[in-house]
Q: What sequence folds into this?
């Protein structure tokens, strides 16, 4: 079995690393590359990060897997994964929401008008999207969503509430799922729409999470959406959302941050002394680090299985579920291990000048819970594995 990348892929990674080394020299590099900013590396919420995305676009890193007729390069999806692996290693904004979830869906199912309006802007990094799926009563059971889209002359009238919409406070456009048929079975009455975020009738309320990642509740009050901003076919939103989620699980869950965190933790435990002894001199710490090293390799292999399944033309649903379940839990395990070994000092907040490693591990302890929830909770991943890999019956 050979898990190596081919020569072109290896050369591609080298070019990305060179580019990121150049960005390291930019005056605002610390605002772009924030490996310590847990859980929000997909965001581009500052002028520096937006400028970085424009540079990614200029260098041809956006839309690599798109067909040439839409400005893409028709490269296999692995290149987008490899790019994200390197971006997440340094904590830079990841690609995916625009070129992946929105772009890929528009290419496959969007009208010529929507393609012409949005695809060039995605390729040039001139548009930010927010994804509006979850609602107060529809998270894991997303197909129960209730935000109402009613037919009116010339389009649709939207009313209702979305929950946990990340980026809503700075995105330009809302990619939103709404119920268009209340009588059909729940998976068959959902449609996707595109609407500008900055309009009267849309109210955005920030939700602070314990990991300091800000997400939002969004209220829509009589929002008119013209007919031609319906994405694809009416009542076909559910399969489109599932396709986009598969893309998200493929490209977003990179393993490189685990590798980097382990390196940092190993260094920290080596330089921290207790009773005159290095922490990593104790058998317990040495064995713990050895165990974590094996775990990180395990996460890498699970990730490689996702890539392999995709390269064989399969939708890697089960592989991606295993990878997300395992690697998000491992992020928590690394933080637990660090906090336990650092003792009471490890609990100091990053605002405290005495916090070891600038408070990174205390923050990590709080923030790593978020990834076990977003894009499908750990229980949902277990359900996928139980049902599709093990063939076990549904529990209900
Ligand atoms: C930081 C963050 C960012 C997010 N960003 C976005 C975004 O941009 N856009 C968006 O639309 N959504 C977003 N979400 C929402 C996210 O997708 C949902 O939080 C997630 O799907 C869980 O839904 P819920 O919060 O309603 O919890 P629920 O579905 O109500 O689950 C509550 C608990 O019950 C468990 N549970 C539920 N069903 C089952 C079951 N069948 N079997 C066993 N256990 C079960 C869950 O695992 C969980 O522990 C974000 C969430 C977070 C935390």
A:
């Amino acid at each position: 079995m050979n898990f190596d990348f081919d020569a072109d892929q290896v050369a591609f990674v080298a070019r990305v690393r060179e580019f990121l080394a150049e960005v390291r020299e930019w005056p605002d590099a610390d605002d772009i590359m924030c490996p310590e900013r847990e859980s929000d590396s997909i965001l581009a919420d500052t002028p520096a990060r937006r400028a970085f995305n424009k540079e990614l676009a200029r260098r041809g890193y956006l839309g690599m897997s798109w067909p040439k007729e839409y400005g893409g390069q028709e490269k296999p999806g692995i290149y987008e994964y490899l790019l994200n692996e390197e971006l997440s290693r340094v904590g830079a904004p990841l690609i995916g929401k625009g070129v992946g979830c929105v772009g890929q869906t528009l290419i496959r199912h969007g009208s010529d008008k929507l393609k012409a309006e949005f695809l060039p802007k995605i390729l040039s990094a001139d548009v930010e999207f927010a994804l509006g799926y979850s609602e107060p009563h529809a998270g894991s059971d997303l197909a129960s969503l209730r935000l109402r889209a009613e037919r009116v002359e010339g389009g649709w009238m939207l009313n209702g509430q979305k929950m946990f919409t990340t980026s809503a406070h700075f995105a330009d456009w809302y990619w939103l799922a709404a119920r268009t048929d209340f009588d059909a079975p729940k998976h068959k009455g959902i449609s996707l729409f595109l609407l500008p975020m900055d309009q009267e009738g849309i109210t955005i309320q920030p939700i602070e999470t314990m990991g300091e990642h800000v997400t939002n509740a969004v209220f829509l009050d009589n929002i008119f959406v013209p007919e031609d901003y319906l994405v694809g076919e009416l009542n076909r939103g559910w399969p489109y959302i599932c396709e986009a989620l598969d893309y998200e699980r493929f490209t977003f869950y990179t393993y490189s941050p685990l590798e980097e965190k382990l390196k940092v933790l190993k260094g920290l435990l080596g330089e921290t002394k207790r009773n005159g002894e290095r922490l990593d001199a104790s058998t317990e710490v040495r064995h713990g680090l050895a165990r974590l090293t094996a775990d990180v390799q395990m996460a890498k292999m699970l990730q490689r299985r996702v890539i392999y399944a995709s390269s064989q033309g399969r939708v890697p649903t089960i592989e991606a579920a295993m990878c997300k379940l395992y690697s998000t839990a491992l992020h928590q395990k690394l933080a637990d291990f660090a906090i336990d070994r650092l003792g009471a000092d490890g609990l100091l907040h990053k605002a405290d000048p005495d916090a070891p490693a600038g408070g990174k591990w205390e923050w990590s302890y709080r923030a790593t819970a978020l990834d076990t929830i977003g894009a499908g909770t750990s229980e949902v991943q277990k359900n996928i594995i139980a049902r599709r890999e093990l063939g076990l019956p549904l529990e209900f």
Notes: The first strand starts at residue 129 and ends at 132. The CA atoms of residues 134 and 141 lie 9 Å apart. The first helix runs from residue 7 to 24. The chain has twelve helices and ten strands.
